[in-house]
Amino acid sequence: MNADTAKPGKAAGFLGRGPLFWIGMTFGTSGAVVGLVLSGAIEGKATAFTLMIVPLACMAAAFMSMLNKNEAGTGDCVTKGQAQRNYIKRVAVLTSLYLASFAALTFLDRLGDLPYAVRLGVGVLPGLAVAGFFWAIGRLILEETDEFMRMLTIRQTLVASALAMSAASVWGMLESADLVPHIDAYWYAIIWFAGLALGSVVNRITYGTWGHV
Questions:
Q1: What are phi and psi of 146, to 5 degrees?
Q2: Most buried residue among 35, 153, 173, 205 by CB atoms closer than 10 A?
Q3: Given pLDDT bands bounded at 50, 70 and 90, which one contains residue 52?
Q4: To which H or E segment does residue 89 belong?
Q5: Angle at which helices 147-176 and 186-207 cross, to 10°
Q6: Helix 53-72 vs helix 82-111: angle between axes, to the nearest 10 degrees?
Q7: pTM above 0.85?
Q8: What is the DSSP track for 167-201?
């Protein structure tokens, strides 16, 4: 299917907006939530969990926009290979699972004291969904037949890993010296995903293309 025969809705992305808009919304809303948490403007994990649904929904919209543009043949930020289509579908499913488990965790947290087994089972589900994202990226690297695009994806993951591990090391040292407040470890996974966007910028500057992820 080409751009001339594509359905207007899919060609436009998701809700009339392209992937870059939804990616920008994801990082913008994530930054707002992080700022509110670190400033003490909001208290309690339940409130933070509830607010994080907004950037997660934006991220799901970004992947839906990518998938629609890909299927319509109008995508300018993704390639049209089978590996990329599989990756987008996997991430869309994992994002849905994450949102559902996140909502369940928030709801149960508001109920108060629950059996340990229940809290453990529900609490581990969002983390497993996030682990699924790493698996999806790994499958993308393995399934990609274009060596250049595979190299760009690997570069993105290296940049993301360097950013997340550097942030964990620096903040951990500052925290051990009681110079900064404690943050939960799952924020480093969020930083890793932000590093993928930074890796895309690095790819764009050095090779003239954003890459897959």
A1: -85, 115
A2: 153
A3: confident
A4: helix 82-111
A5: 140
A6: 160
A7: no
A8: HHHHHHHHHHTTSS----THHHHHHHHHHHHHHHH
For residue 4, pLDDT beyond 60: no
Tokens representing 92 are 């869309």
Q: Which two tokens stand for residue 169?
A: 């090391």
Q: How far is CA 93 from CA 3, 20, 56, 61, 118, in A?
A: 26, 20, 13, 12, 24
User: Does 213 have pLDDT greater than 70?
Assistant: no
102 Cβ contact list (under 8 Å, min separation 6): 49, 52, 53, 56, 126
Which structure tokens are listed for 203? 């790819």
User: Hunting for tokens 């009339």 — which residue is that?
Assistant: 16
What local confidence, expressed as pLDDT, does residue 40 receive? 76
Q: In b/e form, how buried is each residue of 70-102, taking b as 16+ CB within 10 angstroms?
A: bbbebbebbbebebbbebbebbbebbeebbebb
What's the longest Cα–Cα distance across the chain? 61
Q: Which amino acid is at 35?
A: G
